[in-house]
Amino acid sequence: MLSGLLIVLLPLVLGYLVPVHQARAMALINHGVNASVYVILLLMGVSLAGLEDLTSQLSRLGGQALQLFAVISVLNLAGLWWLSRRLGLRADPSQVVPGAPTSKLAAIAGSLALVGVVVLGVLLGLAGGGLAGAALFAQTETLAEWVLYALLALIGCQLRNSGMPLRQILLNRFGLAIATVLAVTSLAGGLLAAPLLDLAWNEGLAMAAGFGWYSLSGILIGDRLGPLLGGVAFFNDLTRELLAFVLIPLVIRRHAALAIGYGGATSMDFTLPVIQQHGGVACVPIAVVSGFILSLLSPPLILFLLSL
Prior knowledge:
Layout: H1 2-16, H2 23-49, H3 54-87, H4 104-132, H5 134-160, H6 166-171, H7 173-193, H8 201-208, H9 214-225, H10 227-251, H11 256-262, H12 272-279, H13 283-307
């Protein structure tokens, strides 16, 4: 088990060791990450098409994703509400940027586009399954594994060159506190949901350790536990992001820590424009630090839990 963990962690660590100084090279890495995510999600869809009794399996997927999401979200919201009262962190209306650029609709469209890629993969798998049968699905799994290794290396490189010094992260007590509460309550939710989903305790924890990073969690879980549970992890974390877009404008003025934290790892990218628009510029560094910590924690934690 540990050897399997090391094989998957190795590209992440190697990528983290690579410094990138040219903007063009960093742009290519970012494009590579995006392309890899789409390829793996497409292959995940093809693998889903290979499941027996596909209709009932997809129904099971949706039910399990909803159960997992509900349990984790209740604990997340309770923990972050408690933290909001303890920290006393408030958004300042005077700091809100008038007409600040927000990609809320574009981000939602991008999230739904990823769902569309999975659906396209299912359709391609159904069309090709009758022609190639089991050989197609075996080749799909092998190809997805190699693309996953490349993706992890690129993600490691992204994290290394994100411009976030470790000292700045550790000294931001608000961001660190928010990330800690979100991680602890998510893992507690995964542990509670494990028996409901008929999973081992470590598998339940791994399913909850995506912290909103749906493109990565679905890929890592799917590689180890199969496409069905990979789909559950994907839709659980995707639903978190979609709810965050609705929740942030409603609660950030009175409960800034809750609004920033609920988006999980996405608070440093996809939900950041919405946080800036409704919470002001003072919320931005807190959101970036919180999201960065969760993004850094998620991949090795998922891989470690699945190796137990």
